[in-house]
Amino acid sequence: MSKKNKNVQKxxxxxxxxxxxxxxxxxxxxxxxxxxxxxxGGGSDDPNVFNPDIYNFRRIRLxxxxxxxxxGIQVYAILLxxxxxxx
Length: 87
Description:
It holds the Pfam family DUF3098. There is one protein chain. 51% of the residues lie in helices and 0% in strands. It is an all-alpha fold. It has a domain at 28-87. α1 (19-39) runs antiparallel to α2 (57-79). The longest helix is centred in the C-terminal third of the chain and has 23 residues, at 57-79. It starts with 18 loop residues before the first helix and ends in an 8-residue tail after the last helix.
């Protein structure tokens, strides 16, 4: 029996993402969570009474914008290549 396969290297286990990718992922998650927190509430205790506070700026414009920004940050974090050489 020959020992030709003695120098075969085992594949090293590496993470797909680096520290910078995870940092942007968590920042995106924080934006999304903040958007959902700002969107919550505004209902009425009595179902027969309409509360116009449900249509204020925070729930209609700000919260969905934060969620979309968070999703954009998530996409950026996935596509980010931290090993790219800078010239």
